[in-house]
Amino acid sequence: MNENHCTMCGDKLDEWDIAQNFSLNTYIGYGSKYDTETLNAKFCCKCFDKIMDYIVRDSVLSPFKG
Questions:
Q1: Torsion angle of the four alpha carbons 21, 41, 44, 13, in this order, in degrees rounded to the nearest 10
Q2: What is the distance between the alpha carbons of residues 47 and 56, in angstroms, rounded to a whole number?
Q3: How far apart are the C-alpha atoms of 9 and 49, rounded to whole Å?
């Protein structure tokens, strides 16, 4: 896989996916089982919705501003 594919499903990102830029890029410090890893994930619109459905469903506080 390369940077033009969705990290979750592996599908090639289309123009719309690229324009939306649903990505997570961060260094993970300490306090996690992923200590010292660097997260670099890109998602297609469909997979981003799946992630958000999980977060919204399981969140005590709304992840949305507004």
A1: 80
A2: 14
A3: 12
Nearest of 49, 1, 2 to residue 22 by alpha carbon: 49
Structure token digits, residue 13 = 């990102």
State both tokens at 34.
């992923």
Q: What is the pTM of this model?
A: 0.83
Tokens of 23: 């990505």
34-58 pLDDT, tens digit each: 999 999 999 999 999 999 999 999 9
Residues 6+ apart with CB under 8 A from 16: 45
Q: What backbone phi and psi angles, to 5 degrees, belong to 20?
A: -75, -30
Phi-psi region of 52 (alpha: psi -120 to 50; beta: other; left: phi over 0): alpha
List 41's β-bridge partners, or say none: 24
